[in-house]
């Protein structure tokens, strides 16, 4: 678990620093990722790059792992504190959410929003666009 925990922590750190290449280096080529700010999913590193680039043009999001636990082999639950602001600095969301990662061969293969059943719409953190 130590190596997996380190990979997850590195991914969050890279995301928070807007280091797309650093985050993508920790993922499989066909990684599956939710589009929390738009709804739906993206697949593959270049789709994640495009999605995050769009997201960061509209929002300033920061996520900090609070608790990382291994459910099954390759399934990691991460409770995170998520702070989302618009680019003017107004807080849109400040709370905890659950992310569930699938890790294969030491790389992130998928991330799911553990507390959301409807993945076709933006999450509550991004519902109030300003």
Automatic annotation (TrEMBL):
Native source organism of the sequence: Acidicapsa dinghuensis
Pfam families, A to Z: SnoaL_2 (PF12680)
Name of protein: Nuclear transport factor 2 family protein
UniProt domain SnoaL-like: residue ranges: 8-110
Signal peptide: none
């Amino acid at each position: 678990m130590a190596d997996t925990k380190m990979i997850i922590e590195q991914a969050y750190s890279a995301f928070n620093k807007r280091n797309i290449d650093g985050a993508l280096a920790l993922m499989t080529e066909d990684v599956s990722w939710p589009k929390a700010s738009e709804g739906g999913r993206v697949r593959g590193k270049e789709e994640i790059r495009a999605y995050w680039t769009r997201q960061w043009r509209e929002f300033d999001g920061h996520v900090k792992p609070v608790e990382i636990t291994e459910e099954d082999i390759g399934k990691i639950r991460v409770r995170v504190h998520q702070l989302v602001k618009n680019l003017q600095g107004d807080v849109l969301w400040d709370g905890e959410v659950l992310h569930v990662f699938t890790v294969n061969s030491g790389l992130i293969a998928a991330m799911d929003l553990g507390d959301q059943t409807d993945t076709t719409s933006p999450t509550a953190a991004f519902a109030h666009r300003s």
